[in-house]
């Protein structure tokens, strides 16, 4: 078993996470379908809140704290546009033609969280943006392919990084995937870069989120004064995809498909 304090989930706990993930996937699919020029982040947040009430789940991110010195996260939805990598607020933003929009959500259902994200183009987007979105999604699935008992977290990161860099994009280093379960963030960390056969060994019952964040330019980041919104330092585009997965005896199950 892993030396770190990893919460290995039972079959019944994974079944609950599967239900949680299904609800989250349906909400995210709806939100993604609403992304178009002219719609505001405030409108998408209202849709999110309505869906949360409909499914009787708890938003994982709203009122989440990272520090006593930083106000808690204000919304159920993380809403990041163009050079915003993650943790953007939805309020006061209107989507424009050609924007790329990352929507990231977590929900808590029967005591267990699930976490997922996707990036969507609004209207007609340029070729580089299309490629960035496509490669980021592919990189997520390259990482997921490495999830099996006996493999290590470095195998996941290596697969993500190799595919991203082969296609001319950089992988954010300061932000990583994470364990998911009774808490939205649990050990272990799941970097999107690394070397084969390094890192923590994977065991059945582990559940975690893999979330590549790929940048059009370099991988350096900066944080807004709100303490939350993370952007590319060079102002170029970023895309983000994420799934919550479970390590099974035979490989991997995507819980937020």
Explain how this protein is built.
This protein is an alpha+beta fold. The chain has one domain (about 10-255): Creatinase/methionine aminopeptidase superfamily (Creatine Amidinohydrolase, Alpha-Beta Complex). The chain has four helices and 15 strands. The chain has helices at about 10-35, 40-55, 125-145, 155-165, and strands spanning about 60, 80, 85, 100-110, 110-120, 170, 175-180, 185-190, 205-210, 215, 220-225, 230, 240, 245, 250-255. It has a five-stranded antiparallel beta sheet with strand order 8-7-9-14-15. Strands 1, 2, 4 and 5 form a four-stranded antiparallel beta sheet that branches. A hairpin with a 6-residue loop joins strand 11 (about 220-225) and strand 12 (about 230). Helix 1 (about 10-35) runs antiparallel to helix 2 and helix 3 runs antiparallel to helix 4 (about 155-165). The relative contact order is 0.19. The mean pLDDT is about 95.
């Amino acid at each position: 078993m892993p030396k770190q304090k990893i919460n290995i989930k039972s079959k019944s706990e994974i079944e609950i996470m599967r239900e949680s993930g299904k609800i989250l996937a349906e909400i995210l699919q709806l939100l993604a379908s609403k992304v178009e020029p002219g719609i505001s982040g405030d409108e998408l947040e209202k849709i999110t809140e309505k869906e949360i009430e409909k499914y009787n789940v708890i938003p994982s991110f709203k009122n989440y704290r990272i520090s006593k010195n930083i106000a808690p996260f204000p919304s159920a939805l993380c809403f990041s546009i163009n050079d915003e990598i993650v943790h953007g607020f939805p309020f006061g933003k209107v989507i424009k033609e050609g924007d790329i929009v990352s929507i990231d959500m977590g929900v808590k259902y029967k005591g267990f969280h699930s976490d997922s994200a996707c990036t969507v183009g609004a209207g007609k987007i340029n070729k580089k943006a299309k490629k960035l979105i496509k490669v980021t999604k592919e990189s997520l699935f390259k990482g997921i392919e490495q999830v099996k008992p006996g493999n290590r977290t470095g195998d996941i990161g290596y697969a993500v990084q190799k595919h991203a860099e082969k296609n001319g994009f950089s992988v954010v280093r300061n932000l990583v995937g994470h364990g998911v379960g009774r808490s939205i963030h649990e050990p272990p960390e799941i970097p999107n870069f690394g070397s084969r056969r390094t890192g923590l060994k994977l065991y059945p019952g582990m559940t975690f989120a893999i979330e590549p964040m790929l940048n059009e330019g370099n991988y350096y980041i900066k944080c807004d004064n709100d303490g939350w919104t993370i952007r590319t330092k060079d102002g170029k585009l970023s895309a983000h995809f994420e799934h919550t997965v479970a390590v099974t005896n035979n490989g991997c199950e995507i819980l937020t498909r």
